[in-house]
């Protein structure tokens, strides 16, 4: 009925356009946003985005799309497309200046920067891309449209997720589209959409089918005049409101009949075109959604005049539309339909022709010459050229690795490994071995966020080799497998694999042996087995020095120095660590240098107890990381070491400000757990127990099998503080968890918090808690025997605090013991522990009737207030009530102030005359816990017995 296929105006999308316009207004004001537009194929996502971009006045408008290449993958295609657009719009030099070294490789003819992907990581590239957008936004808002996320590679999905979290406060609006009908249960986009949906500054827009009235408006816009109602009704019914289907149905129908299926429609469209146009479409469909004009000229067997005529007919028939220097199908569904009609032999010949053309002129590739190998692999696989496919996959893997697209590099290398035994003998002569490909894929999986895949790759690699003839290589692979096991939380397997590596390498004086020994030393150090760590560390240092293997030397010294420091040999340990940093720096291994700063900071803080120097070292390391562009998880770990320094010193706002700079806090593994554990400490000190529990749960979820005492100790300590804060002081399995790591000083703060809980429970009559407290005292005392001066000084401080708790449980409120404990915590820089000791000192002075009570009360209140410790302030108020003294600046209160929700429940039951056993049964808690609650209630209300508490509760209506 109509010569036109699509309407000149958009119909029925006012609400989605308003949502995009609202996001744009917020971004213009500096509130960066992500709008995700979903909908079935043909519903109008691309049209909507195009219409919105046309209306985004005053904005820099950037567009990139994801490519579907079957078994091959072109990594980060949207980034490449956007940077190439900037090169066209701003000029090559200006675009290169914006891109910087991390993004240079995406620009035509520009070499990739020489940074080490292992340490700079994807985050470095993500940061650079964000920096490009923010620099562009200095002159006005920026709109970035990324289409077809359902085809996105893993790295692109990670980039979108990362940008969504880190564009808040910028003048950038990110718009992404995807096909909702592609979202099968296992689709990698599904969890990404779920995660994005939890972010406040992300909005989802789901395009709905057009109404029958809107379909009528669409057809009228196409036809130029009203369409007969019976045709409108048939089109609306059969298209089910899908605009693309409606347009195609309408274009294919005559005055009385509408085709039945989309296949009929598209077949009719193609059949109605001239032969030259059909040939052009068949060739273009083999290229993909878009094809370069010059590439068509090379591949097509048509003469230039016939090719031009075919292109003109395809454009006039609105099958193709011009797109820069090439053409694209008006809709992906049309490309898919044409490609499906190709006969197997025809399809293979076309892909062969595209492969030959790209080999002859790589610049014709969709991503330019530098990225042509992904396309070559796609066409070679379709043309059954395994030699070319193998070579292209290997090169594409190396290219992806250089671009920090580790997941895509892994995919390419896995594909090459699968083809390796099927290539010709001639190709095999220069080809990397299967084990080398699998090893490289394992490295990529480690950096790409899926370390579990690396375990399988390394095991397969080991299985392809002869353990006798290839002993050195196999030994090195066992060491790498050990590290992969550790990264997956499999500590026992990591130790067993390390045992195998050192057994195989024996007394070798090879680089593999030095690396394996350096890792073994680090593994045992991470497990808190410091004495065992020293011997392999010293051997690794010796062999690395002998070989001049500087990176391996730095790593061995790093682990050895940390272990020696933990054993109290601070001077030797710190000297080794400082030297390890210098060696790594001279070798250009910036990531290893940052690791040295991490371990120096940790050693200075614990057991060195030099908090100011630890802070200066952490800041020095962060400055180094910035100068050398070392980013990602390693630098974030150093940031969280600085967070620990702030927390220990009681500077909660300082800790929060550093946590805001952490970019990997949501990732699986040790960084994610460290981030959420640190966040939980801030919450628990300030009395936000529900939030602290949520962070603690996330920490466990992100690293469920972690064996590192540096993580386990703080998590147990958090559990104890939460239990006290909510009025349920229960030791549970905390002591059983920490006891195996008693040799690691990182467990002592958590262990003493277990003692704090045990003391509270023991005061309420728990014999088990009393025994746990005695056991803690005994464990620390045993460690003290034979300890050197550094370790003895640390243990003496913790023993002072535990001794004061033991005396309190025994009914001896000895102010002198609490003064010793307070001074020990002050001297070691443990702000929260020192504040707690001050509260207990005030209580002990009250029991002793000391005249120092008022002054110490004021000092304790000032300390807890400066710290922002809500629970300690409540405890101090309770102590003041108990001893009938006034907290400075606060009136003495009677009533429900200070009771937790659980204590209020207990008070209500107590007012009914219930016994502790009955209270416990009603609330599903133990009788001992109910007793603890009752004791706390009496103290907080300032009453002396249950009767007075019940009377007060009834007066207050509880």
UniProtKB/TrEMBL annotation:
It comes from Nocardioides pocheonensis. Residues 892-957 form the HTH luxR-type domain. CDD domains: LuxR_C_like. Keywords: ATP-binding, Nucleotide-binding. GO terms for cellular component: cytoplasm. Pfam families: AAA_16, GerE. InterPro entries: AAA_16, P-loop_NTPase, Sig_transdc_resp-reg_C-effctor, TPR-like_helical_dom_sf, Tscrpt_reg_LuxR_C, WH-like_DNA-bd_sf. PANTHER family: TESTICULAR SOLUBLE ADENYLYL CYCLASE (PTHR16305), TRANSCRIPTIONAL ACTIVATOR DOMAIN (PTHR16305:SF35). The keyword RNA-binding does not apply. One of its GO terms (molecular function) is DNA binding. The keyword ATP-binding applies. This is HTH luxR-type domain-containing protein. One of its GO terms (biological process) is regulation of DNA-templated transcription.
């Amino acid at each position: 009925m109509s010569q036109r296929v699509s309407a000149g105006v958009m119909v029925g999308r006012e609400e989605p356009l308003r949502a995009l316009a609202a996001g744009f207004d917020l971004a213009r004001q500096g509130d960066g946003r992500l709008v995700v537009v979903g909908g079935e194929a043909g519903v109008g996502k691309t049209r909507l985005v195009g219409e919105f971009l046309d209306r985004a006045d005053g904005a820099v408008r950037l567009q990139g799309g994801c490519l579907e290449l079957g078994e091959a993958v072109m990594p980060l295609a949207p980034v490449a497309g956007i940077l190439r657009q900037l090169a066209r719009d701003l000029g090559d030099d200006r675009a290169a200046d914006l891109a910087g070294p991390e993004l240079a490789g995406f620009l035509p003819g520009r070499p990739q920067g020489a940074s080490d992907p292992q340490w700079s990581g994807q985050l470095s590239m993500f940061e650079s891309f964000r920096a490009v957008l923010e620099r562009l936004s200095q002159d006005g808002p920026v709109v970035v449209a990324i289409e077809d996320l359902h085809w996105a590679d893993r790295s692109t999905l990670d980039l979108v997720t990362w940008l969504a979290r880190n564009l808040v406060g910028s003048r950038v609006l990110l718009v992404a589209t995807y096909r909702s009908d592609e979202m099968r249960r296992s689709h990698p986009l599904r969890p990404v959409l779920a995660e994005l949906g939890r972010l406040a500054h992300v909005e989802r827009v789901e395009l709905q089918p057009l109404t029958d009235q809107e379909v009528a408006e669409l057809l009228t816009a196409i036809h130029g005049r009203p369409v007969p109602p019976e045709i409108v009704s048939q089109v609306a019914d059969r298209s089910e409101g899908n605009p693309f289907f409606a347009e195609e149905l309408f274009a294919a129908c005559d005055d009385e009949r509408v085709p039945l299926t989309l296949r009929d429609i598209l077949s009719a469209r193609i059949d109605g075109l001239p032969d030259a146009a059909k040939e052009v479409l068949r060739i273009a469909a083999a290229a993909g959604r878009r094809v370069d004009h010059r590439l068509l000229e090379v591949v097509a067997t048509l003469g230039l005049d016939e090719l031009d005529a075919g292109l003109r007919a395809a454009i006039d028939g609105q099958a193709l539309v011009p797109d820069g220097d090439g053409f694209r199908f008006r809709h992906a569904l049309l490309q898919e339909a044409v490609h499906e009609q190709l006969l197997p032999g025809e399809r293979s010949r076309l892909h062969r022709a595209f492969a030959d053309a790209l080999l002859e002129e790589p610049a014709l590739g969709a991503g330019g010459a530098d990225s042509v190998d992904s396309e070559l692999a796609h066409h070679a696989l379709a043309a059954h050229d395994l030699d070319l496919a193998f070579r292209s996959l290997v090169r594409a893997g190396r290219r992806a690795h250089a671009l920090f697209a580790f997941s895509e590099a892994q995919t390419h290398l896995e594909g090459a490994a699968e083809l390796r035994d099927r290539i010709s003998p001639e190709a095999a002569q220069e080809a990397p071995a299967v084990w080398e490909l699998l090893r490289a894929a394992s490295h990529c999986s480690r950096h790409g966020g899926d370390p579990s895949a690396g375990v399988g790759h390394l095991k397969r690699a080991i299985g392809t080799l002869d353990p006798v003839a290839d002993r050195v290589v196999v030994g090195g692979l066992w060491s790498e497998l050990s590290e992969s096991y550790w990264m997956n939380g499999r500590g026992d397997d990591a130790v067993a694999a390390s045992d195998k590596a050192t057994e195989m390498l024996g007394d070798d004086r090879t680089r593999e042996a030095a690396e394996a020994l350096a890792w073994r030393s680090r593994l045992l150090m991470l497990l808190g087995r410091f004495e065992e760590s020293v011997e392999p560390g010293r051997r690794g240092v010796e062999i690395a020095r002998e070989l001049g293997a500087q990176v391996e030397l730095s790593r061995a010294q790093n682990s050895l120095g940390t272990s020696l420091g933990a054993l109290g040999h601070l001077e030797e340990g710190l000297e080794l660590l400082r030297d390890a940093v210098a060696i790594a720096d001279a070798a250009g291994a910036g990531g290893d240098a940052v690791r040295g700063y991490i371990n120096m900071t940790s050693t200075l803080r614990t057991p060195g107890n030099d908090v100011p120097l630890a802070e200066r070292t952490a800041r020095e390391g962060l400055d180094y990381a910035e100068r050398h562009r070392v980013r990602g998880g390693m630098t974030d770990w150093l940031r969280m070491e600085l967070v620990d320094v702030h927390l220990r010193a009681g500077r909660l706002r300082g800790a929060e400000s550093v946590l805001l700079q952490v970019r990997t806090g949501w990732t699986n593994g040790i960084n994610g757990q460290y981030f959420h554990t640190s966040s939980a400490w801030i919450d628990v000190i300030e009395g936000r127990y529900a939030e602290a529990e949520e962070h603690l749960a996330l920490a466990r979820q992100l690293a469920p099998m972690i064996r590192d005492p540096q993580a386990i100790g703080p998590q147990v300590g958090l559990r104890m503080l939460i239990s006290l804060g909510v009025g349920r002081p229960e030791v549970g399995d905390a002591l059983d968890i920490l006891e195996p790591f008693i040799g690691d000083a990182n467990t002592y703060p958590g262990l003493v918090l277990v003692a704090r809980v045990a003391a509270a429970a023991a005061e309420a009559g728990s014999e088990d808690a009393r025994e746990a407290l005695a056991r803690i005292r005994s464990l620390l005392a045993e460690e003290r025997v034979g300890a050197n001066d550094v370790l003895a000084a640390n243990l003496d401080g913790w023993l002072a605090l535990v001794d004061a708790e033991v005396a309190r449980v025994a009914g001896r409120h000895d102010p002198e013991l609490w003064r010793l404990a307070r001074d020990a915590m002050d001297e070691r820089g443990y702000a929260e522990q020192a504040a707690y000791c001050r509260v207990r000192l005030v209580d002990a002075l009250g029991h002793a009737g000391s005249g120092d009570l008022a002054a110490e009360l004021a000092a304790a209140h000032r300390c807890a207030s400066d710290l922002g410790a809500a629970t300690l302030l409540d405890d101090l108020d309770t102590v003041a009530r108990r001893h009938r003294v006034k907290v400075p600046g606060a009136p003495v209160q009677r009533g429900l102030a200070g009771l937790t929700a659980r204590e209020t429940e207990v008070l209500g039951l107590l007012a009914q005359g219930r016994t502790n056993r009955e209270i416990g049964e009603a609330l599903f808690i133990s009788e001992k816990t109910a007793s603890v609650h009752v004791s706390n209630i009496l103290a907080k209300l300032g009453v002396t017995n249950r009767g007075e508490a019940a009377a007060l509760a009834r007066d207050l209506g509880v």
